[in-house]
């Protein structure tokens, strides 16, 4: 089992991420939203930092964000598959991982497809499209406006600290069962990427 992060290094990571991400539209999600809102910092068992983007914003800005993270001394890995555009950025610094993940629009929901196992985190689109600000380690971040509704969807009884907060918004085989095409982001990406002629 992974060990919780060093919170002093975690606070440094948050500040470094904020410096890179402040020009870009993003919001705290999952354990980071829980820690910022409930605990005023990190949850007691936090392992990483979770920051989310709307899918269309990640398509537009993902390349620039990855470059800026590298310039700021982060080790960076990007995930494109299966949607043909950057949808997850994994950024490492101070021995801690930050997941920058996109929630793609599908019908009346937004989903974030795991890159490791076949599940997606799924929420009503409005829940992830309206924000309020919160202070976190001396920096200002967006979190979902209906934060308590969001946290209840994610964790059920989010008010009680537990050893392991596992997301309840996971839907197995969501992408397959919904028959979501791999080209979901292609039309958005065409606005921002120059494609070589065939």
Secondary structure blueprint with pairings:
Elements: H1 7-21, E1 27-28, H2 30-39, E2 49-54, H3 55-71, E3 75-79, E4 88-93, E5 96-106, E6 109-113, E7 119-124, E8 131-136, E9 139-144, H4 147-155, E10 170-172, H5 174-177, H6 186-192
Parallel strand pairs: 2-5
Antiparallel strand pairs: 1-2, 3-4, 4-5, 5-6, 6-7, 7-10, 8-9
Could you characterize the architecture of this molecule?
This protein is an alpha+beta fold and 198 residues long. Helices cover 31% and strands 28% of the residues. The protein has 6 helices and 10 strands; from the N terminus they run αβαβαβββββββαβαα. The longest helix is centred in the first third of the chain and has 17 residues, at 55-71. It is globular. The relative contact order is 0.18. The model has no long low-confidence stretch (mean pLDDT 92).
In short:
This protein is α+β, with helices and mostly antiparallel strands and 198 residues long.
The average pLDDT is: 92
Tally of extended strands?
10
Quaternary structure annotation: single chain
Proportion of strand residues = 25-35%
Low-confidence stretches: none
Sheet having the most strands: 8 strands, mixed
The 3D shape can be described as globular
End-to-end separation in angstroms reads 48 Å
**Gyration radius, in Å:** 16 Å
Range of helix content: 25-40%
Count of alpha/pi helices: 6
- Secondary-structure-derived class: alpha+beta
- Which series of helices and strands comes N to C? HEHEHEEEEEEEHEHH
Descriptive tags:
28% strand; globular; 198 residues; single chain; eight-stranded mixed β-sheet; two-stranded antiparallel ribbon; alpha+beta
